[in-house]
Amino acid sequence: MTHELVNLELTTADGRPLIHKFYQQSEMAKGLLLLFPGNHYGVDGPLLYYPSEMLRDDGWDTLAVSYGFQTAGKEPFEEGLDVLLDECRSAAQAALQIRDYPQVGLVGKSLGAAVVAQLCASDESFDEARAAYLTPALGTSFFDPLFIETNQRAFVAVGTADRFYSSEALEELQTAKRFKLALIEGADHSMNVSGDLVASTQNVRKVVEALLAFLTNGT
User: Fold this and answer.
1) Sign of torsion over alpha carbons 38, 43, 47, 48
2) H, E, C per residue of the chain
3) Which pLDDT score is estimated for 18?
4) What is the pLDDT of residue 77?
5) pTM of the model
6) Exposed, middle or buried: residue 109 (CB in 10 Å: 0-12, 13-18, 19+)?
7) Which domain range does residue 75 map to?
8) How far apart are CA 21 and CA 171, in angstroms?
9) What pLDDT tens digit does each residue of the chain (219 aa) get?
10) What is the CATH number of the domain that holds 35?
């Protein structure tokens, strides 16, 4: 199947241009993948790049969401979380209106994981979607309560050396909600192991393979 970059040209809350990379299949797509990057981890980072490449080659449309605060050179919550969420919701809805998708996947990295939790907890458009949370900020007020509220099938990937990892918080989430988990021993916030290229690339492969299986498994 062939695809092309068509871009979604929207605007920020304050009216500035905000372009989201949207790859669309030439024929009917198998699904729509929505990618929400981290503050310092873009959509070209391996944890987001490889799933989008693999699914796009398999016939999915993919939307890589851009954040208005980044194009303005600001910090994530400087303009308020509501502004960020409105921009992300507008981008996702614009993509969903282009064609009917048999399946939808949302993948968020770090800050993007919090965005995914917010969208899944508040927008019925994603009731049947599958949601993946890569290296979320466990134990924080802007992730845990909303994640518990969500009803979508969920996948969580986190490393035990991640600065946001908390075994206690993870256990509490597992008690409150069922979800698939990829717990990577010794991996940091980017799934790297300091000074060990082989282990780092193996960790990325483990997470990407588990994520792809989660998004494409029919059960």
Assistant:
1) positive
2) CCEEECCEEEECCCCCEEEEEEEEECCCCCCEEEEECCCCCCCCCHHHHHHHHHHHHCCCEEEECCCHHHHCCCCCCCCCHHHHHHHHHHHHHHHHCCCCCCCEEEEEECHHHHHHHHHHHHCHHHCCCEEEEECCCCCCCCCHHHHHHCCCEEEEEEECCCCCCCHHHHHHHHHHCCCEEEEECCCCCCCCCCCCHHHHHHHHHHHHHHHHHHHHCCC
3) 82
4) 63
5) 0.93
6) buried
7) 3-216
8) 36
9) 687 788 778 877 777 888 889 999 998 899 999 999 999 899 999 999 999 999 999 999 999 998 887 766 666 665 667 888 888 999 999 999 989 999 999 999 999 999 999 999 998 989 999 999 999 999 999 899 999 999 999 999 999 999 999 999 999 999 999 999 999 999 999 999 999 999 999 999 999 999 999 999 855
10) 3.40.50.1820
| Residue type (1 letter), 97 | Q
Write down the pLDDT at residue 10: 81
Residue 70 contacts residue 83 (beta carbons within 8 Å): no
Cα angle 130, 134, 137 (rounded to 5 degrees) comes to: 115
- Phi/psi of residue 180, each to 5°? -80, 140
Distance CA 146, CA 121 (A): 6
Strands 17-25 and 61-64: antiparallel
- Count of positions (residues) in the chain: 219
Question: For the chain, what is the domain count?
Answer: 1
The burial class, CB within 10 Å (0-12 / 13-18 / 19+), for 2 is exposed
The span from the CA of 200 to the CA of 194, in Å, is 8
Report the DSSP beta bridge partners of residue 184.
159
